[in-house]
């Protein structure tokens, strides 16, 4: 399968009709939008960054900045595109050692206005940098290096599958392991989550960890917006935790992972934040199955319950596979001989990836144990 085949489809083509009312899922519209007339200027951004031209970057940010009245008049689609285009300049200035709002203080009320309009944080996120970023000649990039584009594509391909996962996880939370649909929904989640494995495989094959560590990572640093720090676009903001939440994390979490999610959730879409609020106090699929097996005892397990357990184990194996490969990649990017930062761009140490991998593996083992046979 070609990379184009994986990233060409999106919520515009995958989602149910009701999703089309959600402007943040209108990917084609957001990519096409250029409310600030930024195309010509941002085409020159990699050249500015190559020579660390802070003055040119500051002039560019000031030139693109709309008035607060103009920002307030934007629809959500244009506001998202505007934040996307201002955001690459914010990250570029910080990469070269300048707090962007120190250089262009008049940007503060505009960023706050765009944040209120979009119901998101007052800077760009991974969604702006990947899913809502145009492709081809209009693609917004910090470096212009083909590996940067490949990394954007690898993250971009995950977005539509996670959109579809949202409904599937909500549906799963309403079911019990004795329901025949429990296994069916889990299989759907597993197929959708498989995009994460495809994404990490493409990243490993086409993006050098040294390039990320030495060239790209610095553009994702946090910036100060009105006295509060906000992280830059980070792959950690791609919320695989939406799947964890329903499968095991809502009642089988870890203090460090829970704290990381509490800090990360604000970078998500409004509907995804609402999903977490609705389900964070629920009973996980792993706990439901564990209780059901305890009730049944050591006697023959009903076929529907065994099917539910097998389906859940398959999904957890997909997540385990992704996390093992992600951990390997992160260890290379943050190895002592190449790294420039101690923590990942999402604000967490590499050790947390190991913790979450272990938790995923432990839950898979717990689900497989009543079925007998070795854990893969």
What is the fold named in CATH at topology level of the largest domain?
Methane Monooxygenase Hydroxylase, Chain G, domain 1
Question: What summary fits the major beta sheet?
Answer: 2 strands, antiparallel
Name the quaternary structure: single chain
Strand content: under 5%
Q: Helical content, roughly?
A: 55-70%
| CATH architecture classification name of the largest domain | Up-down Bundle
Could you explain how this protein is built, in words?
By secondary structure, the chain is mainly α. The chain has two domains: 8-144, Methane Monooxygenase Hydroxylase, Chain G, domain 1; 157-371, Methane Monooxygenase Hydroxylase, Chain G, domain 1 (Up-down Bundle). It is built from 21 helices and two strands. The chain has helices spanning 3-8, 11-14, 27-32, 39-43, 45-50, 54-64, 68-73, 76-95, 100-103, 107-118, 126-129, 146-156, 159-173, 180-206, 209-216, 241-252, 255-264, 270-279, 285-296, 303-333, 350-368, and strands spanning 223-225, 228-230. A two-stranded antiparallel sheet has the order 1-2. Helix 13 (159-173) runs antiparallel to helix 14 (180-206) and helix 13 (159-173) runs parallel beside helix 16. It is elongated, with a radius of gyration of 22 Å. InterPro entries: PrnB (IPR015029), Trp/Indoleamine_2_3_dOase-like (IPR037217). This is Monodechloroaminopyrrolnitrin synthase PrnB. It comes from Streptomyces sanyensis.
